[in-house]
Design brief:
Layout (H helix, E strand, L loop, with lengths): L22 E3 L5 E2 L13 E3 L1 H4 L3 H8 L8
Antiparallel strand pairs: 1-2, 1-3
């Protein structure tokens, strides 16, 4: 009897999440669209990515020149 080799199929699945609904899990670094818990690890420690990436140009420029105050 002839042995059949297992076929490896690669398929690329793309998922699109609008930036306004994208959250990054700070525990496992997964991205999801549920504001309540991570889709991978069910953690509730999430960061809304719109607040990080969807900034106005003026906000970015004003933050570039902030220098932390050194304690005396």
């Amino acid at each position: 009897m002839r042995e059949k080799k297992s076929e490896i199929r690669t398929s690329e699945t793309r998922h699109f999440i609008p930036l306004a609904r994208a959250y990054l899990c700070q525990d496992c670094d997964s991205v999801g669209s549920n504001a309540m818990q991570c889709p991978a690890c069910a953690s509730g420690v999430l960061l809304g990515l719109a607040s990080v990436f969807d900034r106005k140009e003026e906000d970015v420029k004003s933050n570039l020149f902030l220098v932390p105050t050194l304690a005396a």
